[in-house]
Amino acid sequence: MRFYKEQHHYYCGIDLHTKVMNICIMDQSGKILNHKNIQTDPDDFLEAINPYKEDIVVCVECIFTCYWISNLCIEHNIPFVLGHALCMKAISGGKTKNDRIDSEKIAALLRGGSAVSNSRQSPNIRGEKYYQ
Question: How far apart are CA 56 and CA 92, in angstroms?
Answer without folding.
Answer: 22
